[in-house]
């Protein structure tokens, strides 16, 4: 583990694990889809030619030739395993990170988070060293403990949410890229082109998420620099500055929770992401569990009532047979 860049190391390791099989999976899907797509495409072209022979096709031949050129590009990029792995996958998986790096001033978003985390942890470390060097004094110890609490409460949730957003965006873009050949095959036929649009919207959504996280992380770093600016050492930063910086990070945490919704709305509903562990997610899960428990309880009551009815019917039947005998 790289202690100088822990978040970058974590995201890099996850991306390495996920990306290691992306090319092989995409190649396998392309190899599997290509024969069926070739048969369907051949039938599709034959039907178009038949319409031209019957005079039922209104599209000019030149326009049809342009469409054939488009078909060649789609097949060459999306259904050729080598071209798709070397050309399409890097674009789908890397455009979000490249744009985020451009927005954050040439540094990766994870590096910005590392810079923020190490700066705050250095405040805690130097504060601890200054308190440890002084003999037992209750006042400085209380101030240090409160500073540490505000740093942890304000910083850890923000870093965790930002890291989760980046991991979701990276892993999601790789998963979308892996199934891409199937949707390139859908792009050939008019009746299934809507599915390619959905795939493209989803890829665009995951590309937007690192951009939004980069903007919010840059805001957090700027806020921290503004709060902690001055010539004083880190162990002498005022309690007020630490408190305001922590409140600023908690405010930016609310913006991070909207990243998935913003990316989805700007990409025509490509994804619907609610942050795991958010209040709405937990509330919906609790309501679903409550409804499930009520359903089980009602089902049990129905079974008991059915058993009682069957018992009464059997008793009446037995009494009628006994009286008849």
Automatic annotation (TrEMBL):
Entry superkingdom: Bacteria
Keywords noted in UniProt: Membrane, Plasmid, Transmembrane, Transmembrane helix
GO biological process: protein secretion by the type IV secretion system
Membrane topology label: Multi-pass membrane protein
Pfam family, one: TrbL
Entry-linked InterPro entries: Conjugal_tfr_TrbL/VirB6
Subcellular localization, as worded in the UniProt entry: Membrane
Protein name as it appears in the record: Conjugal transfer protein TrbL
Source organism (scientific name): Xylella fastidiosa subsp. sandyi Ann-1
């Amino acid at each position: 583990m790289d202690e100088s860049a822990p978040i970058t190391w974590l995201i890099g390791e996850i991306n390495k694990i996920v990306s290691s099989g992306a090319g092989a999976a995409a190649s396998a899907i392309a190899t599997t889809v290509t024969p069926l797509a070739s048969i369907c495409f051949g039938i599709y072209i034959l039907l178009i030619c038949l319409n031209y022979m019957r005079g039922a096709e209104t599209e000019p031949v030149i326009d049809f030739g342009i469409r054939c050129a488009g078909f060649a590009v789609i097949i060459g990029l999306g259904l050729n395993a080598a071209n798709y792995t070397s050309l399409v996958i890097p674009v789908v998986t890397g455009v979000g990170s490249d744009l985020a790096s451009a927005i954050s001033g040439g540094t990766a978003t994870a590096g910005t988070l590392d810079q923020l985390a190490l700066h705050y942890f250095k405040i805690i470390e130097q504060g601890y060293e200054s308190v440890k060097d002084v003999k037992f004094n209750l006042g400085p110890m209380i101030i240090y403990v409160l500073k540490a609490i505000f740093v942890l409460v304000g910083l850890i949730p923000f870093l965790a949410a930002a890291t989760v957003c980046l991991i979701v965006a990276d892993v999601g873009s790789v998963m979308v890229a892996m199934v891409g050949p199937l949707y390139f095959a859908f792009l050939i036929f008019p009746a299934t082109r809507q599915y390619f649009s959905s795939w493209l919207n989803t890829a665009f959504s995951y590309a937007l998420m690192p951009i939004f996280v980069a903007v919010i992380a840059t805001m957090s770093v700027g806020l921290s620099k503004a709060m902690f600016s001055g010539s004083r050492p880190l162990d002498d930063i005022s309690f007020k500055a630490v408190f305001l910086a922590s409140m600023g990070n908690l405010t930016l945490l609310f913006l991070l929770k909207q990243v998935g919704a913003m990316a989805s709305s700007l990409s025509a509903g490509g994804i619907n992401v609610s942050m795991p562990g958010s209040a709405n997610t937990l509330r919906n899960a609790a309501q679903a569990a409550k409804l499930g428990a009520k359903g089980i309880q009602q089902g049990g009551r129905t079974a008991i009532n059915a058993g009682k009815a069957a018992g009464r019917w059997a008793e009446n039947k037995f009494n009628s047979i006994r009286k008849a005998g």
